[in-house]
Amino acid sequence: MERAGGAGAAAALGQRLAEGGQGHVLRFWPELSAEARRELAAELRGMDVAEINRFFRRARGDGGGAAAAAGLDARMQPVPRDVLGSASRDRELLPRWESRGLAEIAGSRVAALLLAGGQGTRLGVPYPKGMCDVGLPSRKTLFHLQAQRLRRLQQLAEEQHGTPCNIPWYIMTSGRTMESTREFFVKHHYFGLKKENVIFFQQGMLPALGFDGKILLEEKGKIAMAPDGNGGLYRALGAHGIVEDMERRGVQSVHVYCVDNILVKVADPRFIGFCLEKGADCGAKVVEKTNPTEPVGVVCRVDGVYQVVEYSEISLATAQKRGPDGRLLFNAGNIANHYFTTAFLKDVVNTYEPQLQHHVAEKKIPHVDITTGQLIQPEKPNGIKMEKFVFDIFQFSKKFVVYEVLREDEFSPLKNADSQNGKDNPTTARHALMSLHHCWVLNAGGHFVDENGTRIPAIPRLKDANDLPIQCEISPLISYGGEGLEKYVKGREFCAPLIIDEDGIHELVKNGV
């Protein structure tokens, strides 16, 4: 066996790359150290050049998405009421759905699957988003909050059904986030979850390509790589045997969600119960879009098939259309929060995934000039990154449903640093959680008073980014969704900041009040 970096191995590698029209990536091979050669050879050995070329041809295809999007507005239909469940419009059904979901959880038939491949680059931090601390009184990170919600759900299900249960937590990382994510969980003892029920796996990476389909070099001995989008989930499920693991554990329902939503109800029993009652194999949780220009995709039907249409693909006239009730016609805002049966995921992995086409994002990609060897920092897009989206598989569902929830209860994403535009940042995330918890206290019969002992009027919802919420944080181990708080707060008055956790009630005491 020729060692990596040896002449024979290099020649064979060079021939395979040249046959695929990508021989240029070895242009600087003679200049590389033995270690750099080994690393580059290892990276290239795992790369199917013919497949990458095929992806490129299909993705660029007949003008790519532009042709597919032509006439989209005329072909769009809103979600029909018979497949829609609503946390606000179907209140009388919520207890039944919740009970059904908790029964599934009690039977250890539910798993949570976290999409955690994103770096915190836009947040201005060098580590994965899940490790972000948004400045809550407890200083808990997103990973910590989600883990504790799972622990509380397991406890609720056990209390109601009298049987111990587990919710396996599958965490998809990318090459850039795997090591730091795993280390973080080990350091924090898996936040009290059983180690064997937290399963890490890695999504694939694809090389960035020039507009001519040529692979770009990040350094002389390194390919410019990018994760293959959150829709890379389905290929990764197959590559790492995750569906088989779910089957072995008896999991039948899977809740898939993105890491960056501080309010996410992980393995939400109401959502799961609703999907089960409807006999769905695939479901999307949405929030109502109230502003036509809000940059979120909408769940709808196109030519009778369910999909997410990105906000950039819809004309303003279509986005502004309203139904008889005055709501936006296309108002099912996608929040990357989905239900799948394990059987459906198995079909996707085995049958449908290869049919998925990559979406093309034109990007400014720093790269080494093949002729001069100089690093170029482009000022305008010079290449493409190819990715798939998690919602690309809606089209294959036999029974698709949509579950609408209130944004203030369940959706506050963390995307930007505090210094940017005042939206979707650590401050808005922190305020959203504290405002929700303030509501929970009021609903359970508690009250807040100022330093003079005067009751503060109940204005729990933030209508403006400049409104400051009352500082109030309730540990997920105490309450998953506002339940069980009466014994702590009913008929009592509190001074903020108020923290309720497994050690009891903590509030700021001023002047002996």
Report helical residue fraction: 25-40%
In the sheet with the most strands, the strands line up as 2-20-12-15-11-3-4-5
- How many separate helices? 16
> So what's the overall shape?
globular
Mean pLDDT value: 92
Distance between the termini: 78 Å
Strand segment tally: 25
Structural class: alpha/beta
Largest sheet: 8 strands, mixed
User: Regions with pLDDT < 50 over 5+ consecutive residues?
Assistant: 1-5, 62-67
Portion in strands:
15-25%
Q: Compute the CA-based radius of gyration.
A: 25 Å
Summarize the structure in words.
By secondary structure, the chain is α/β, with parallel strands linked by helices. It is 30% helix and 20% strand. It is built from 16 helices and 25 strands. The strands form 8 sheets. It has an 8-stranded mixed sheet with strand order 2-20-12-15-11-3-4-5, sandwiched between helices. It has a 3-stranded antiparallel sheet with strand order 1-13-14. The chain has a 3-stranded antiparallel sheet with strand order 7-19-16, covered by helices on one side. A hairpin with a 2-residue loop joins strand 13 and strand 14. The longest helix is centred in the first third of the chain and has 20 residues. It is globular. It starts with 6 loop residues before the first helix and ends in a 6-residue tail after the last strand. The N terminus is likely disordered.
List the helices and strands and how they pair.
Elements: H1 7-19, H2 34-45, H3 49-60, H4 65-69, H5 72-75, E1 76-77, E2 84-86, H6 94-106, E3 110-115, H7 142-161, E4 169-173, H8 178-187, E5 198-202, E6 205-207, E7 209-210, E8 217-219, E9 222-223, E10 225-227, H9 233-239, H10 242-249, E11 253-258, H11 269-278, E12 282-288, E13 298-302, E14 305-309, H12 316-319, E15 332-341, H13 342-352, E16 359-363, E17 367-368, E18 375-376, E19 383-387, E20 400-405, H14 407-410, H15 426-443, E21 447-448, E22 472-474, H16 486-489, E23 493-494, E24 498-501, E25 504-507
Parallel strand pairs: 2-20, 3-4, 3-11, 4-5, 12-20, 21-23, 22-24
Antiparallel strand pairs: 1-13, 6-10, 7-19, 8-9, 11-15, 12-15, 13-14, 16-19, 17-18, 24-25
